Each structure stands twice: as C-alpha cells, then as structure tokens.
Predict the 3D structure of the following.
Amino acid sequence: QVQLVESGGGLVQPGGSLRLSCAASGSTLDYYAIGWFRQAPGEEREGVSCISTADSSKYYAESAKGRFTVSRDIAKNTIYLQMNKLKPDDTAVYYCNTGHIWGQGTQVTVSS
C-alpha cells in the first residue's frame, strides 16, 4: 500500500515562494498520475497540478500556470511543487494524491 507524506508548507508573504515535497513509500507506478490538490477553508478540494507516472507529462490548473512547477525525482520516489509568486488566494491545505491515496496535507498560508 502506497503512503504519501507531504512537507514544506508554512507561512510566507505575498510574492514569496515555497517548495512542497511529497515522499511516497511503495510504488506509485500502478497509478496513472501523482499530484497536488488544495483545499481552502469553506471551499471544495481542487486540483492544482499533477505529473504522469508514465511519461512525466504535466498538468496545471489555470490558477497555477506560470507560477507553480511540478517535478518528480524517481530515485527518491518524491514529487515536488515549487510555488512562486504566491498570493493570499493560494492559502490552503495542500494534499498529495495518487489514485485513491491521499497524504495528510500540509498547510500553506500566504499573508503579510
């Protein structure tokens, strides 16, 4: 059974950057993609970005395009989400996901 552990969240000022990490234990190759969702207070969970486990093609939500970059280190079985030019609207709990498996989430707060 794959387990996902996120890290890297925190408090950052608007315009700042954070890099989230998601370490997977076990093989994620059984699943088509692995990626990031987020959920702000009172909002539904939404997809942010994902990467294909087959060919490493990438997907970004409109809100993430041009600011966020998803990457994958196969040797470390870890994916990353580099987030630049952060805005207060990016404040949310960020979750790593593959198939039906979710991590515990990491809080990102963008505030001055």
In short: The two ends are 40 Å apart (CA to CA). The longest strand covers residues 18-25. The CA atoms of residues 14 and 87 lie 5 Å apart. The chain has a mean pLDDT of 94.
